[in-house]
Amino acid sequence: MVPRPSTAQRFHIRLHLRNTPPEVLLHDLQRVARLSGERSPSTSFYDAHGRVSCQAIIHRFGSWNAALAAAGLPIRKTYRIAEADLFDNLVQVWRKLGRQPCSTELSRKDGLSRYSTTAYLGRFGTWNKALQAFDAYVNRGKPPKARPNKKPRRAKRTINWRLRATVLLRDNCTCRMCGASPAKTPGVSLHVDHITPWAKGGATALHNLQTLCSACNIGKSDRLCTPTRPKTSRPCSGRRRRLPPKRGR
Length: 249
Known about the structure:
By secondary structure, this protein is mainly α. About 35% of the residues lie in helices and about 5% in strands. Among the domains are: about 20-70; about 85-140, no CATH class; about 160-220, no CATH class. It is flat, with a radius of gyration of 33 Å. Mean pLDDT is about 80; it is low at about 230-240.
């Protein structure tokens, strides 16, 4: 028999919540914020005291900052800040102080600045370079640089088994270059090859894959080759083809 726990020993059960309404999640986020004693809780603190995980919050609202904004809490950290926003914040700090701010005075805890010095150093490298860019923007009217977007992630080079089988069935298990097939010649090894090589920007997708035997695949290597398709014969119509009239000499 399982021994019964004493009154001093308690097992606190936390049930896994599913399909929780957004209002319940926001109320719980506000509760954890009051418990933390800070303006906004971190993801690690919420994992320790929240009813759900922070990943559930991020999955529901899209990001942690979006969840904080929906709950009416200040955003802890802003990512990918535009240069115009950094310069506008510097203008506000300059006006509050009545002079040029120092790098050590950009503190978010005091409410003086929306962004810390780290944001400026991460964008411009040094505080002097940030001031030079600010001078070019404010005094000389130079437009701020647009931050480049992240490059989209490419699909992996590895071809999964399902995609490989789809390519083989489409090509009738026949090499697209020499026509070799295990049904005709036992021992022929078939590979699934990228038509446009993956190293040259080719996608791991059905339209960019073809069936090649091992010899043709090794010989092709990373060349750009036009895929060959099996020729189809037209049915005979029984009509004689009319020849063009001969021109007189």
